[in-house]
Amino acid sequence: MEQTALRPKPIPGQDRRDDTEPGPARHPHAAPRRGRRVRSLLFCLSVGTVLLLTGVGLGTAGATVIGMSRLADLRRQPPPSPAGPVPSAAPAPAPAAAATLGVEAADAERVGALVVGVHVPGPGYTAGLVRGDVLLQLGDRRIDSAADLVSVVRAAPPGKEAKLTVRHASGGYQQLTVVPGVVT
Questions:
Q1: Which residues contact 15 (CB under 8 A, 6 or more apart)?
Q2: Which phi and psi (to 5°) does residue 111 adopt?
Q3: pLDDT for residue 161 is more than 60
Q4: Whose CB among 61, 77, 148, 167 lies 3.0–4.6 Å from 134's, allowing a Cys bridge?
Q5: What span, in angstroms and rounded, lies between the C-alpha atoms of 122 and 184?
Q6: Residues 6+ away with beta carbon under 8 Å from 39
Q7: How many other CB atoms sit within 10 Å of the CB of residue 104?
């Protein structure tokens, strides 16, 4: 009679063979796993390639669409009339320099333009304007709203000092000296 206690039982899926010939152990489950790894690697590489090519394609398509829209805008413009003035070789005169205070303003509750932002560095910051100030007068011109501030500042000569009347948030009035800057 065979003694099974000394002999181990075979692992399921393995052949019963004699232990007389040594050799590598068989792994029947390794081949499907290897195939799945290769398949998933190829799938990931193909998805990555598609995403990369799609991204490049979208960027190129976006640039093409922008270029075509600009071309369409140029085509919509009327062509220059041949009877018009002949362009000269002399450069066109530079537009007049516009002045700025370097502030952002909104209409105040009462008269004036409320300063909601001061650009640093800028003429308004240099003069001492802070957020919450209300601009009332620049030079001899009164400021009733933010639109008035725009027209008054545009009319001011850039680079020349001007007196600016300000009402602070605390209620106090002050006259500041400001030098409107040039918009570049």
A1: 26
A2: -70, 140
A3: yes
A4: 167
A5: 13
A6: none
A7: 15
Confidence (pLDDT) at 136: 92
The pLDDT tens digits for 110-122 are: 889 999 998 888 8
Residue 133 has a pLDDT of 92
- Spatial separation of the C-alpha atoms in residues 84 and 80, rounded to whole Å: 8
Judged by average pLDDT, the poorest of 73-77, 100-104, 152-156 is: 73-77
Q: What is the DSSP string of 90-142?
A: SPPPPPPPPEE-SEEEEE-SSSSEEEEEE-SSSHHHHHT--TT-EEEEETTEE
Q: Are 156 and 139 in contact (CB under 8 A)?
A: yes
At 76, which helix (H) or strand (E)?
Answer: helix 30-76
Q: Measured between alpha carbons, how far is 176 from 135 in angstroms, rounded to an integer?
A: 10
pLDDT for 99: 80
